[in-house]
Amino acid sequence: MPLPSEVESKGSILRSPSHLNIVVGRNGAGKSRFLRALSGLKDQEGYFVRYVSPERAGTFDYDPGIENNERLQRDWVESQRGKNQADNFKRASANKLRDLALRFAAKLEVDRELRGDFSKTFVTTQLAKLNSLLTNLVIEREEGHNFVFKTHSGERVPVHDISSGESEAVALATEILHFFEQCDDSRTNILLVDEPDVHLHPDLQARFARFLLQELDELNKQVKARTLLVVTTHSTPLICELSRSSYCSIGTKEFNEGVVVQEPASNQLKKMAPFFGHPLSQAISSDMPLLIEGEDDERIWQQAARSAQGRLKIFPCLATSVNQQTELEAFVDSFLRAIYDQPAAISLRDGDGVREILPPIGVVNRFRLQCYAAENLLATDEVLRSLDATWATLVSAGLEWCQNNEEHKDVAEFEAFLNCPNRGRDRKIKNIRQLIPAVLGSKKPWEVVVGQALGNLDGSISAQAGRGIVEYVGRDALVAIGLI
């Protein structure tokens, strides 16, 4: 049975869910309320639901009082966490670690194959996964089902001396192991994890994401088909790591909006993943995303950023068609506004012979090249000057080349370009773009030639009006990008 087309409870709707759903949104947008509403599905037949609140206080030690409360009220822990102020969250997690050990022992009694494999113990199959998240400590099992923290040298560490990040990671991982242990294919299994990145260093966030993905991957096919995870987060390292999964989708929670629509990460988020994977996740405060239409444009602007030597603060993000760029513009607007206080992005499209002004889409400022496409910049004064040439010398060298290469498949097109009165500004020259630097004696790829000229632009006006980079790209676009 496939996942439902939408999951709905108490006015909150998760539409088009995947097995792994990331939900982003600003503080106060209602992400926690959204998850708590969905957690109401636990009361409906055919659902197994667990909610992990963002307030995860306390220490990771066993508390028999919690166990007694659960005996008296089956969903006591879940009801406490639904208040979003779970003071004894980690103690409840510690109790679940004991329960995992008891479940493994019960399974051992009835599973002959498991009993016969001495390499599979609770320590090697479950506890080792928790320890993989720790750097300076290990969890060890003592007599019975008691667990303690120790240094690698064997010194016992009291639970109140463990760093908040490490105890947080262990508690979260225990919750996840306990959830997956109870999943089955007779119902829809939903794990709701609210801001798991709290207190976790970016590296630990990435390790936790890999742990989560591994647990999802290890589910058997039938159970996985009926299991979905929903993760809310502000963390770009966590988003970037989770987006590696083919199961991943992303949606944005807006203020006063109860519906979150998930989009496959493979179609949208992964175009932005390199941007969000920027070191220390500071890209939005320094490097602005520049949405461009094709791989050639991506290479041009990467070269421009290198040539500008820090002056140009952009990060090119690739779309592969006009339609896809439109989708990406809308997605980036929604995504950036859901995360950042002062979001901004730029989209630069080919001109395709059109001069119309493009209105912004939210925080995405949109521009058209004021020439047919990026290769037409090869005819600008700045690019020609970088090749120690002018338009007149290009025409002279080009016509000579045409005379000497009459059998070349592109000779007629090249000659027509050289004879254009406006340097072919609105002419499609894709087939001959590499010929232009070549006939001038340059071995550089044309994208490098154009990118270097852009990166070295100083804002000066071309000697011939209408023949410079400023005119071909557009002054407003270059100001927004930061080149002039």
Sum this structure up briefly.
This protein has 484 residues and is of the alpha/beta class. The chain has helices at 31-38, 64-72, 76-81, 89-110, 112-116, 122-131, 164-182, 202-218, 221-224, 236-242, 269-276, 283-286, 295-307, 322-339, 381-386, 391-404, 411-418, 435-439, 446-455, 469-473, 475-481, and strands spanning 6-9, 12-15, 20-24, 47-52, 137-141, 147-151, 156-157, 188-194, 227-232, 248-252, 259-261, 263-264, 288-292, 314-318, 345-349, 364-368.
Task: Give the key terms.
484 residues, alpha/beta, Rossmann fold, 3 domains, elongated, 16 strands, 4-stranded parallel β-sheet, single chain
Descriptive overview:
The chain is of the alpha/beta class. The protein has three domains: 6-266, Rossmann fold (3-Layer(aba) Sandwich), CATH 3.40.50; 273-368, no CATH class; 374-481, no CATH class. The chain has 21 helices and 16 strands. The chain has helices at residues 31-38, 64-72, 76-81, 89-110, 112-116, 122-131, 164-182, 202-218, 221-224, 236-242, 269-276, 283-286, 295-307, 322-339, 381-386, 391-404, 411-418, 435-439, 446-455, 469-473, 475-481, and strands spanning 6-9, 12-15, 20-24, 47-52, 137-141, 147-151, 156-157, 188-194, 227-232, 248-252, 259-261, 263-264, 288-292, 314-318, 345-349, 364-368. It has a six-stranded mixed beta sheet with strand order 4-8-9-3-10-12, sandwiched between helices. A four-stranded parallel beta sheet has the order 14-13-15-16, with helices on both faces. A three-stranded mixed beta sheet has the order 1-2-11, with helices on one face. Strand 1 and strand 2 form a beta hairpin. The radius of gyration is 29 Å and the shape is elongated. Residues 278-285 have low confidence and may be disordered.
